[in-house]
Design a protein that fits this description.
Two copies of one chain form a homodimer. The longest helix of chain A is centred in the N-terminal third of the chain and has 21 residues. Chain A has 421 residues and is an alpha/beta fold. Chain A is globular, with a radius of gyration of 23 Å. Helices cover 43% and strands 21% of the residues of chain A. Chain A folds into two domains: 217 residues, Aldehyde Dehydrogenase, Chain A, domain 1 (3-Layer(aba) Sandwich); 186 residues, Aldehyde Dehydrogenase, Chain A, domain 2 (3-Layer(aba) Sandwich). An eight-stranded parallel sheet of chain A has the order 10-9-11-8-7-12-13-16, sandwiched between helices. Chain A has a four-stranded parallel sheet with strand order 5-4-3-6, with helices on both faces. At the A-B interface, strand 2, helix 6, strand 14, strand 15 and strand 16 of A face strand 2, helix 6, strand 14, strand 15 and strand 16 of B.
């Protein structure tokens, strides 16, 4: 490994740590003003950003990148305006720093409060989408954290131009220049060095495909906010209303097939298979979804293909779904905990007892009752923007008693909601 | 590495995972009944436990273990009764599982709740103290987690006898046998295998000296609840009442010198050094504490020794303290963030503005205002027993928005409290 690279990354880390200490006590209104100034700077520098993006696009085309990759990389005035608007939205969120999370008084008269503070320095490792530069930096800044960004080499110039505009805005408002930094080299080794910089980086957020996340998981000596895969399930219980089940399943699979909250496996209770299986399978196939089913699913519709073992643990991110009949809630939970990725699962049922068993049984970050798995999203949760979804469990701080040996899950209770758009 | 060992540890992990799934939904009253039954079983098996302990003690003496180590290893009827009482105390704590941590309703009518759930499987790696076997297992069980225990080889027989009694109690109440398991070999390699068992273990808790924790930190592929060191500071501000400062400093350093919350460095504001430094240094030395001071501290009392650079980052765990004069709160915070271990820091001051600056500035899990650092303890916080203190920052679960980019700190506000006993 290059000593120069080590020295470079350490210097970035040192500066970020120093900026983080300053940022931790910046008042909300100053952070928000800086975010609005950054939004304005991005609008003003739109031309420069587009020029930089054109360079990246040209190089990417020459390298023969796929159409999907090129689309992720491409910026236009609308996307730049969306980026600026995104910063303004983040400015409008309530400041999470300084909240009193809990407070109590001891018999000796001491009061104890649990107060929200920034994590410190957050390292973001991402791929081709240059807008992540603005989004991620803004979320970190809002929460009082310094950021070290490491974008994909394809988007290097675009990200750099965005960052220049952004930091210009921050600086104008008196925030530290090093609040947001970018790794100034496309050397792949820099990622490895970054993942060992535990003295200066508190949390790493990998944003990208499975191979990127896998590398980070394997190499990082720093805690991560991450999920490797979103193998999400929708379970249609014996006590499910068929119309609601159809609406939820269609949305959960087909609204957008490429997001991590898309359902990849449909489980149908044997108790309602006779009435519900055929309409669900037919509906999916009619909607252009490939169904890979167990014997029962294949028997329900001749267009269904037989599922292989690997299908139960595959994240398609495409218009493909695996379908299986299971023997009630317990079997559904068993299947999900065995083949799932602890991300997001939904049950459709009118039976509160079955819902409770499902909610308790699934070892997943998000469990929904009568609502679509596509709601697995910070915006849809009412949290504003998100930096990603974590399937990790909790790390506590301070004394670890029984309460700190617990993590949490989100239990979503709906009455058939599906996600629009 | 031995394939047998791999197979053995994987089997332990599989069983623990299965037990954890069952434990997650065991009602509070059943867990509490099982804990009380385990306490009773420990009392009934006291003779067997003492016999096993005698074997361990004999081997330890033959190996020439230090007196301190032998004391940690030794069990007697009083310590066994304390262990049983400890289990009963944990039974009396409120159940942390199932608490609603937050709850809100979305415009579309969905309600979202954040509910406390167990972490899953917790691996505990500890050294010679056999009572950790009972304490740790009970805390994990109370919080619905399965446990894999790996004790020190010196306490193998003692821990095994305790575990046998304990699981007997659990079994009698219908809890799964594999809720608490022990690694059935003293092979050091087993620890390495355990630290890579991320599929089956959710969190590792290392309990022991710095070398144990360091090994775990370096090798673990699993998140940890841990702190490497407790280099805790007490800062006596210019606006500190001298009597309060003396009482707090004496307690913070000398109540027990061997615990992680003991103060290791005293910082005195230059603004009050003239009046406060000499009495504080003299008091400590009179109480039998070795003072390693900067120039000012050495000048204040001829018995003080000059501090070396290494002293500022040393956890003595002994009747030794480093003492330094600093230029106000900002310099104190800078010193603490540079040389400390992000564990616990105290400020003594009557000035709320300075307290606020200290509380905000220190990047530590616990910050106290006018109270002793020795309060850094789950019991003293009113949490009941603790499994350790973590200096790690937060891992969130589910969508990670700005709120989840934060961790918390404990802010303790007192009026001079010192910890008795």
């Amino acid at each position: 490994m290059s000593t120069d690279l080590d020295a470079l990354m350490t210097e970035l880390g040192r500066r970020a740590r120093k900026a983080a200490r300053a940022l931790a006590s910046v008042p909300s209104k100053d952070k928000d003003k800086a975010l609005r100034a950054a939004a304005q700077a991005i609008r003003i520098d739109a031309r420069l950003i587009l020029d930089a993006n054109a360079m990246d696009m040209k190089a990417a085309e020459a390298k023969g990148l796929s159409k999907a990759m090129l689309d992720r990389l491409m910026l236009d005035p609308a996307r730049i305006e969306a980026m600026a608007k995104g910063l303004e939205e983040i400015a409008r969120l309530p400041d999470p720093v300084g909240r009193t999370l809990a407070e109590w008084t001891r018999p000796n008269g001491m009061t104890i409060a649990r107060i929200a503070v920034p994590l410190g320095v957050i390292g973001i490792i991402y791929e081709s989408r240059p807008n992540v530069t603005a989004d991620a930096a803004a979320l970190c800044l809002k929460s009082g954290n310094a950021t070290i960004l490491r974008g994909g080499s394809e988007s290097f110039h675009s990200s750099h131009a965005i960052l220049t505009a952004l930091t210009g805005g921050l600086l104008a408002c008196g925030l530290p220049l090093d609040a947001v930094q970018m790794v100034p080299t496309t050397d792949r080794e820099a990622v490895g060095v970054m993942l060992r910089l535990s003295e200066y980086i508190d949390v790493i957020v990998p944003r990208g495909g499975k191979s990127l996340v896998e590398r980070v998981v394997n190499e990082s000596r720093i805690p991560l906010f991450q999920h490797l895969e979103g193998i999400c399930h929708t379970y249609v219980d014996g006590a499910a209303d068929l119309d609601m089940a159809k609406e939820i399943v269609l949305n959960a699979k087909m609204r957008r097939t490429g997001i991590c909250g898309a359902t990849e496996t449909l489980l149908v209770d044997a108790a309602c298979a006779k009435t519900h299986l055929q309409p669900l399978v037919a509906m999916l196939i009619d909607a252009g979804c490939e169904v890979r089913g167990d014997q029962a699913a294949c028997a329900a519709d001749s267009r269904a293909l037989p599922a292989a073992d690997i299908d139960w643990s595959t994240e398609y991110l495409d218009a493909i779904i695996s379908v299986k009949v299971v023997d009630g809630v317990a079997a559904a939970v068993e299947h999900i905990n065995t083949f799932g990725s602890h991300h997001t699962e939904a049950i459709v049922t009118d039976n509160a007892h079955n819902a409770e068993a499902f909610i308790t049984g699934c070892d997943s970050a998000i469990v929904l009752w009568n609502a679509s798995t596509q709601f697995a999203d910070g915006g849809e949760f009412g949290m504003g923007a998100e930096i990603g979804i974590s399937t990790g469990k909790l790390h506590a701080r301070g004394p670890v008693g029984v309460e700190q040996l617990c993590t949490f899950k989100y239990v979503v209770t709906g009455n058939g909601q599906v996600r629009p758009g």
